[in-house]
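Per your request, structure below.
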């Protein structure tokens, strides 16, 4: 699974990259520092999954998710937030995201979310 990480903090991008690089069959194909950069990198690298910070300069993660969903409906999107993911899930889904994860719990919560989304992708390809 090719992953694009979009967050305005380089420290967060590097930390998330370290986390996901340890997963089997996952590779970080690109990083972006804001919404417009994420759209450009999505166009260039065509990732399977995009991890999007909810608060970024230029264009927030929700608007970026809406635009990504219009052009690439097959790409899976996970919104990352410093807030309770359950509270943002309905808002994130309305914006086209598949899931939402709290950055404070990313080490524990991200693996099962990615595994679930990866399974969904495989099931959709088999149909």
């Amino acid at each position: 699974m090719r992953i694009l990480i979009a967050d305005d903090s380089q420290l967060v991008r590097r930390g998330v990259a370290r986390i996901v690089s340890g997963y089997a069959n996952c590779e970080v194909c690109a990083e972006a520092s804001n919404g417009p950069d994420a759209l450009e990198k999505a166009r260039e690298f065509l990732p399977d999954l995009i991890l999007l910070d909810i608060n970024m300069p230029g264009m927030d993660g929700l608007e970026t998710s809406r635009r990504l969903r219009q052009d690439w409906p097959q790409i899976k999107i996970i919104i990352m937030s410093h807030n309770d993911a359950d509270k943002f899930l309905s808002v994130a889904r309305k914006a086209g995201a598949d899931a939402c994860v709290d950055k404070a719990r990313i080490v524990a919560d991200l693996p099962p979310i990615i595994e679930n989304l990866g399974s969904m992708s495989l099931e959709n390809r088999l149909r």
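Residues 122-127 have pLDDT under 50 and may be disordered.

Regards,
D.
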